[in-house]
Amino acid sequence: MPFNNKTNINGLILSGGLSSRMGTEKRLLNYHGKTQEEYLYELMKPFCDEVFVSINENQQTTLPAIQDVPEISVKSPIVGIYSAFKKNPDSAWLIIACDMPLVNQETITFLLENRNAEKYATAFENPEEHFPEPLLTIFEPKFYQPLQEFLKQGKKATIRLLQSLDIALLQVPDIQMLKNINTTEEYNSFKLSAMSSEP
């Protein structure tokens, strides 16, 4: 593993959403000659002690997985993050959403090299919206306590929780790394663009 920053780190591929706008599971889309969950799993494995796919009760995967806990009723990616911490509260968690096809080794390397383990989290700042991007973030073990309190209050916006805490906020090397694909139209357009750029 190329990094050792005080605390061990596990990886979580966030993919437990309903994918209602896409009409099919985003984790199973093919951007790199394999499913996106397979791509991210292989990408994250060299950097993490363990890597898991975050799934809901209706999903199945052949990869190591963490199923959303049933006691949190809100529909939000924050449930996947909470479920990961409940499984291992002493680990830091590198979270990557499955709908970010342009995340690569450079992205993870930059995030880990600039990780501040003394903060609650290390995140990229979205340069257009100027908020922390919660779905491409390292959450430290100390994040678990305010996360539990936040959920007890019935709140679910991870961005709001990050904004309320002392976090390391990084400028992303390439804004395209934060691009997410949520609809069939976006997916088809992305695939066409990728094909046209091939030599």
TrEMBL record:
InterPro entries: MobA-like_NTP_Trfase, Molybde_CF_guanTrfase, Nucleotide-diphossugar_trans. Keywords: Cytoplasm, GTP-binding, Magnesium, Metal-binding, Molybdenum cofactor biosynthesis, Nucleotide-binding, Transferase. CDD domains: MobA. Its cofactor is Mg(2+). Residues 11-159 form the MobA-like NTP transferase domain. It catalyses: Mo-molybdopterin + GTP + H(+) = Mo-molybdopterin guanine dinucleotide + diphosphate. It is found in: Cytoplasm. One of its GO terms (molecular function) is transferase activity. It comes from the Bacteria. Mg(2+) binds at residue 99. Its EC number is 2.7.7.77. Its main location: cytoplasm. Pfam families: NTP_transf_3. GTP binds at residues 14-16, 26, 68, 99. The N-terminal domain determines nucleotide recognition and specific binding, while the C-terminal domain determines the specific binding to the target protein. Transfers a GMP moiety from GTP to Mo-molybdopterin (Mo-MPT) cofactor (Moco or molybdenum cofactor) to form Mo-molybdopterin guanine dinucleotide (Mo-MGD) cofactor. Belongs to the MobA family. PANTHER family: MOLYBDENUM COFACTOR GUANYLYLTRANSFERASE. This is Probable molybdenum cofactor guanylyltransferase. It comes from Arcicella aquatica.
